[in-house]
Amino acid sequence: MSAVQTPTLRDVADAAGVHPATASRALNPATRGLVNADTARRVIKVAESLGYRPNPIARGLKTAKSGTVGLVIPDLTNPLFPPIVRGIEAVLEPAGYSGLVVNTDNDPHREQAQIESLRSRQVEGFIVATALLDHPLLARLQQEGVVMVMVNRRPDGLDVPSITPDDATGIELAVQHLADLGHTRIAHLAGPANTSTGVVRARAFRNAVRDRGLDDDPSLLATCRYWTEDSGATALRTLLDAGAEFTAVVAGNDLIALGCYDVFAERSIECPRDISVVGFNDMPFLDKLRPPLTTVAVPHQQIGAEAARMLLDAIADPTRPSRSVLLPLSLVVRGSTAAPR
Amino acid sequence: MSAVQTPTLRDVADAAGVHPATASRALNPATRGLVNADTARRVIKVAESLGYRPNPIARGLKTAKSGTVGLVIPDLTNPLFPPIVRGIEAVLEPAGYSGLVVNTDNDPHREQAQIESLRSRQVEGFIVATALLDHPLLARLQQEGVVMVMVNRRPDGLDVPSITPDDATGIELAVQHLADLGHTRIAHLAGPANTSTGVVRARAFRNAVRDRGLDDDPSLLATCRYWTEDSGATALRTLLDAGAEFTAVVAGNDLIALGCYDVFAERSIECPRDISVVGFNDMPFLDKLRPPLTTVAVPHQQIGAEAARMLLDAIADPTRPSRSVLLPLSLVVRGSTAAPR
């Protein structure tokens, strides 16, 4: 951002018709009580409309904040997360913040220990990518006033800012593509039922199939235990062993789709001639697979950047109402999808 | 580690035949001068033989250390680095340390700004994966007594601890495999000439070719500007356009090998029938490429773990002489290599 585009405290004060010192007090939750309530509301509204954000470095110098935030992710070696972390860092760095990364391996005990350890290091907030639908630890942290943003997934019934891909639209793109090719019996290998992404994508799949008059057959659904190749392979084997008949698969994510590739090799199934597959995420190097994987592209770097912006906003004003942002997705058509035989 | 296996300060003191307070003074560089020199040497020797390491959390409580270290890497979205970072974290976490990750994109200005920013956050040391052969910034940091460990690459003439793959042996494995298949004219797409990995692998390639009586032809060498697919593709095109004749390529790393795949597709070259390719690193999902890539497997997680151990050692005792560790490698044979036509 250039200096021209960044509103200053003085800009806010001028637009609200108050002294800068009054604007400053109104914008700081700790001193807001010193200002007339109507004035405070007006200043906050003006600051929001101008997109004003206090400079965290200058604030850090005054208040001895740590300048660090915790990044809680399941596993950095899952290719989904490095671009998210890079996107986060791209926004944190110019704002004078650094990220402390921890990997939880989705182990609740490990997650709790790591979050407590980060809190003891005085991190000013968390970006959390490990949210389960039911997540008591995150609920407790929120009650304790810990500043958090959920990325990629979010818990049910927790009023925290979140930035997630528009999963439902992504699944619709995949189903529409397969329907356009002539598929009517499409299977879904859903992600874990304890994650919002798994549940939202499975629900979207069923809606997309029904809306298009395709076969809405419960025997075409298998749910994966984890977001992994192994779980994807197991789920596909289960469908095949049960004798389910289908010509295409919408996988919950790319790793689950890669698990399908393993089963195809085991059972001499030719993709896409026998079965088409669509993944989700567009992780790197999918264009060089055999066959190159058709998938829903998710702008992970942008998701990370947006999460960091939301976190900086929440740190600057913890009383700000939480937002949920859905990022639009697109379909990348490659060699793993074709018309059914 | 269980409590049984972890030697305590008392164990060291008992084995050295001194009072625990004396052992403590002898092991702390700041208080060592208070102890008889022979006694100090004996205590240090005993502590090393027992594998004693001071508890950094307890130490942190007394000395108000930050408990953080800086991880300086080129780009987290290069699949080489996430497993290194995980390996680092696996060792830092139980020792009570966290890692602050920065991405430099190999930009010296960015690197300097980020390292200064991390120093201002009181990190206790750095693990650096961005080392160039000639690296004035790292030389200056070393002069200033900054605790550092080099990972994957290392600068020339700088006496800092480093942990790198045994690049020369890895290249030998690749050349031996191709020679066993019957190749005699093997090209090398070398990594950047300003990195130790690029230079060491290129030198090892030439030695391996000579030692086996294969064609040692300078026209079969091209040097890539970066460790990227694009640079790899450019280098291979240069060789082909110059009319060089070869039946196999040893690529400086997997990304350079993937660049070859792009050129093969452009020019209807069939791999491995027309040209065999060997990569280096064994990054994830290479088994699912078309064709699956034969490559030298590098234990990145182990490299990260070892780097973290060396850094903790150096933090505990900055006067400890630096070590350079080479980790052994192995060849993973897949579908991209075959006998020449």
Description:
2 copies of one chain form a homodimer. With 341 residues, chain A is of the alpha/beta class. The first copy, chain A, folds into 3 domains: 44 residues, no CATH class; 128 residues, Response regulator (Rossmann fold, 3-Layer(aba) Sandwich); 132 residues, Response regulator (Rossmann fold). Helix content of chain A is 43%, strand content 15%. In chain A, the strands form 2 sheets. Chain A has a 6-stranded parallel sheet with strand order 2-1-3-4-5-11, with helices on both faces. In chain A, strand 8, helix 11 and strand 9 form a beta-alpha-beta unit. In chain A, helix 1 crosses helix 2, helix 2 crosses helix 3 and helix 8 runs parallel beside helix 9. The longest helix of chain A has 17 residues. Chain A is elongated, with a radius of gyration of 23 Å. The N and C termini of chain A lie far apart (53 Å). In chain A, 48% of the residues are buried. About 3% of the residues of chain A have low confidence.
Summary tags:
6-stranded parallel β-sheet; elongated; homodimer; 6-stranded mixed β-sheet; 12 strands; Rossmann fold; alpha/beta; 3 domains; 341 residues
Radius of gyration of chain A: 23 Å
Question: Unreliable segments of chain A (pLDDT under 50, ≥5 consecutive)?
Answer: 56-64
Distance between the termini of chain A: 53 Å
Number of strands of chain A: 12
The percent range for helix content of chain A is: 40-55%
Proper CATH architecture of the largest domain in chain A:
3-Layer(aba) Sandwich
CATH homologous superfamily title of the largest domain in chain A: Response regulator
Mean pLDDT of chain A: 90
Task: Decide which structural class fits the backbone of chain A.
Answer: alpha/beta
CATH top-level class of the largest domain in chain A: Alpha Beta
